Amino acid sequence: MTFTENLTSWYSVNKRDFPWRNTTDPYRIWLSEIILQQTQIKQGLPYYQAFVKRFPKVYDLAQASQDDVLKLWQGLGYYSRARNLHETAKHVAFELDGVFPTSYSELLKLKGVGDYTASAIASICFNEPKAVLDGNVYRVLSRYFGVDAPINTTSGFKVFRALAQDNLDVQNPAMYNQAIMDFGATQCTPKKAACNTCPLITACTAYSTGTVSELPVKIKAKKPKNRYFNFLVYLSKDKKTIVEQRKANGIWKHLYQFPLIESEKALPYNALKDRLDSELKVDFDLRLYNKQDVVHKLSHQHLHTKFWIIDLNQLPQKGISIAQLSHYAVPVVIENFIKDFNF
After folding, report:
1. CA-CA distance, 165 to 66, in Å (whole number)?
2. pTM for the complete prediction?
3. CB–CB of 148/217 below 8 Å?
4. Residue 112 within a domain
5. Name one GO biological process term (predicted).
6. Are residues 67 and 176 located together in one domain of the fold?
7. Is 242 in the same domain as 121?
8. Among 112, 83, 36, CA closest to 255
9. How far is CA 146 from CA 27, 199, 311, in A?
10. 93-123 pLDDT, tens per residue?
11. 5 catalytic, yes or no?
12. Of these residues, 5, 33, 95, 214, which one is catalytic?
């Protein structure tokens, strides 16, 4: 059997059962693909189920507030996905009369939809012969065909895009695309690949040359930038605190947080105390909640986070009841603090 035939044969026996595998509704396929971008299925599945329950149709998602969408997304990370999800839902619902585009080229025009997502929706929902290219597919193709072009370069993308398309089952692109993704996720895994039970072993270049652990090739990213976040957790006598919404582009846009002071390095107690003395001009008690920084690692930056508790009689500005904190969409590092602090 050919490479393609072997994959689809393997899939017919080993197919994983997920709710989005039982539909060709483009809304649900799109929703699953956006949620699963840079997210493992075991983490993304509960979010998919929650979104489908809360927003069963694209109109329901479109009519929701952005705060509601971000709150439901809370903990999943990469929040630009949630903002784009909401914008695209509104575009489809109100400008396209609730009908998703039916071709790869038109799907690419949707906000937050790239090559992989457009290929997946086009092939699964509309049987368009477009090969998907994600991390699992890169791994399977690079090992089987022995391709060492770096997968995170423009030239590498072009090599693998052509290779993926050449091996696509054009008669059944949906099955083939899901087969190669499942194969990479469960058989040809990043570490400890199950080569001994692999149906492709006899023709796998990486296996025959002993390079399974070396493929695919990826150029190392730059060293992450360190940033130092100091969150000010105001607590008044009448059980109120202050939260603010992040407006600027960048991480956590439109999420809520405690007032933040970002410093170039770890901020000493006395430096913060002097600053607050000059700004607040009222009596307050300052204490550091976490002696060790909470380090929140993102792809290109590491956030060294401290939570400073400020007890005072009255807030310096309008605040919210502590009981209302749970209503706000917050970054996971703040969500964890709220749970641990136990207001």
Report:
1. 37
2. 0.86
3. yes
4. yes
5. base-excision repair
6. yes
7. no
8. 83
9. 37, 17, 62
10. 999 999 999 999 999 999 999 999 999 999 9
11. no
12. 33
